[in-house]
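It would be a great kindness if you could assist me with a short task in structural biology. The matter concerns a single protein, recorded as an amino acid sequence and a row of backbone structure tokens. Could you please explain, in whatever detail you think fit, how the structure tokens follow from the sequence? Thank you for your consideration; the sequence and its tokens are set out here:
___
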Amino acid sequence: MEGVNYALDLTGVVALRVQHSVPYHLANEAHDYSVDCSNLSGYSQLAADLSEEWGCLLMLNQPYTAPVWLGEFGNCHTAAACISSRPLGSGGLWFASLRPYLTSNDVDPGWWAVSGTETTGSVRTYGSEETYGVLNPDWVAPAVFNQLPLPALSVLGALQTIAAPSRDSGVQSPYPPLVSMRRPPLGSAIHSGTLSNMLDENGIATTASVAWSAPNTCDTPIADQPGNGMMKGYLDDDNAVPNMASVTGLSASFKRYHVYVYFSDGNGSATRMGNYRLASVDAFGAVRGCARQLS
């Protein structure tokens, strides 16, 4: 049974003294988002508010006692502040406070959303990044924060502090469930480097610099000549760690510019899929992503 007011409120169950003729055969469902807690001061306030709105239904030996499923909750995955920020009223504070509340009260949640891209809708663009999604825009790995260096804890990792991943006993597979994706901060992977005072198209030094990291480097047996040289030697990712490159210090005169991405998804007889993602950070620190990029 879902609550009223966007499923935020189940107080009517207590107020109307709803009694179950067959105990524990009914589950209540609630929703909660950071926008519903804009004035949050911390865990104590959130615990008090949720206990009043629907947590009271978990109290044992009451006529209305029944399980509560948090059927919808979610927050952005675009920055570390989405899951761990501490400013009052922030989404990160809400998420950091909600997780221990769910754990201590044994409440099972359903995150919105798993999908890596948006569907259709009045304020949605089909195929663009789902910024609340657990998966990345290509649906092949956990979502990555749009910031460098990458924090150690991702949205998926934060969710796993509520409930450890598991597989139903009826599912037969020789492989363990995919539960995480290693994302070392820029510069901490096996191969990394920087280049400063990059040259513009006229060969003049600029204030721009680039930093990169990758788990491997590799090369292909092709002739080092125009048209091939960019892919003869390259940064090589693996199934868990992506390559990363960050360009900083661009001159204010670069109001418009082109970004060229050279990548290969399969060499020789190998059949693989490759994908890449572009994002920028404006002068105010806001991340500006692009729609999904395909291999």
In short: The longest strand covers residues 68-74. The radius of gyration is 24 Å. The beta strands are 28-33, 68-74, 109-111, 191-195, 209-214, 216-219, 233-236, 244-248, 279-281, 287-289.
